[in-house]
Amino acid sequence: MNNLDTPKNIHQGRNVKRFREMLGLKQEALAIALGDEWSQKRVSLLEAKEIIEPELLTKVASALNVPEDAIKNFDEEKAIYNIQNNYDGSSSNYSGLYHCTFNPIDKLLEVIEENKKLYERLLQTEREKVEILKNKA
């Protein structure tokens, strides 16, 4: 059994702080959004609480414009585990670097050779035009 599957207490106050910081709000701004009776100090005390009363949680979630369940259930360890193990390219042999399946220098040389051939054909058609003009004169 994975240690992330075991139930643990979610610190709701810390989650309020996380969401507030993700939204780029200072404690003073959240206090203003919560109403006149709120101050930066009171928001700080709220963020220190492990469990927030349901009515207050509803008010805070509304002020932050996030679902109440997000504050109640957000578990940072599970989120980090999920991100680390469920993104594209998370296989154990992924080195994070792009591996070419061809030699780029060979491709460059092929392009140069193709350009030479095109130039030679262009030069040949110009010579043919000059010969045609000489014969008409």
Describe the structure.
The protein is an all-alpha fold and about 140 residues long. The chain has 7 helices and no strands. Helix 2 (about 25-35) packs across helix 3. The longest helix is centred in the last third of the chain and has 33 residues, at about 105-135. The radius of gyration is 34 Å and the shape is rod-shaped. The N and C termini lie far apart (about 95 Å).
Determine the strand fraction and express it as a percent band.
under 5%
Main sheet makeup: none
Instruction: State the total count of DSSP E strands.
Output: 0
Rough shape? rod-shaped
**H and E string:** HHHHHHH
Radius of gyration: 34 Å
Number of helices: 7
Mean pLDDT: 84
Which structural class matches the secondary elements?
Answer: mainly alpha
Percent of residues in helices: 55-70%
How far from one another are the termini?
A: 95 Å
Spans of at least 5 consecutive residues with low confidence: 1-7
